Amino acid sequence: MLTGPAWTQKLRTEIGKAVIGQxxxxxxLLVALLANGHVLLEGMPGLAKTLLVKSLGTTLxxxxxxxxxxxxxxxxxxxxxxxxQPKTGEFTAHRGPVFANLVLADxxxxxxAKVQSALLEAMQERQVTIGGQTHPLPKPFFVMATQNPxxxxxxxxxxxxxxxxxxxxxxxxxxxxxxxxxxxLRWGQVTKQPALLPASSGEELLSLRAEVDRVHVxxxxxxxxxxxxxxxxxxxxxxVAKRHLTFGASPRASLALYQSGRxxxxxxxxxxxxxALIQELAPDxxxxxxxxxxxxxxxxxxxxxxxxxxxxxxxxxxxx
Length: 320
Description:
Blueprint: H1 4-15, H2 23-34, E1 38-42, H3 49-60, E2 64-68, H4 76-79, E3 80-85, E4 90-95, E5 102-106, H5 113-116, H6 120-125, E6 127-130, E7 133-136, E8 142-147, H7 160-163, E9 166-171, H8 177-187, H9 202-213, H10 219-234, E10 245-247, H11 251-267, H12 275-286, E11 291-292, H13 294-298, H14 303-313
Parallel strand pairs: 1-8, 1-9, 2-5, 5-8
Antiparallel strand pairs: 3-4, 6-7, 10-11
Helix pairs in contact: 2-11, 9-11, 10-11, 10-12, 11-12, 12-14
């Protein structure tokens, strides 16, 4: 049976033909695939977010569709609509780009809420409703969305119901000087473009999830996950901290830490989930699931700062 490190390495090698660096982000994307979760990528333009997701789809050998979110986009442009057939006199369902294994919602915050909400059913139930009929989505199915963190003109904030459906919110940072230099040397010629080959498949990915489910989560780590998530809710009740937080993480955060902890352990060749893995994943799982107040933003208190405080204040279970 294929091991986690071996599977990860063969995908990293192929993706590395197109994307230089971003090793931590790539690892989180693989964790999300194994945990059956969606990902929100946030970063400045030009950091290869779109290229990374497209390369991931090619490397996995699954169907990939990209939807460019714009202010004039309609929900039917995403999920599909009913089309009248003159020959039969009947309406038939025309399936939109959401009927793919990997859907890239590029610049998702550039479309209004009614378009963003078109993905809610797809992301949670893995199905869409067109003309009153329910259509299941292919397996596996993932939504990976990108957004710009600083540009506000012509953008719409994602509703909490939307962001809560993302397993991770990943921050894509600038490459190092060495990585940026390597990019110029490798892609300085327009004729020298990467040609990626499939290194896995959707069927293999689905089968590997059974291996991930065998990773052990001890009762102590189980309770530690609960303590971390519930601590974010407790912050909304404290006399000082409640000025910084309007709401804590939902139960989806507990499930996300549990599932992604198992997936990350398997990727790294471990057969159990440690508290250190949960601490490592906590910012990516929680940063989009807690609500900052205007006072916190004015004081430049970020979600990651509050999450770090929660991790520091929550007792770590002893090794057994």
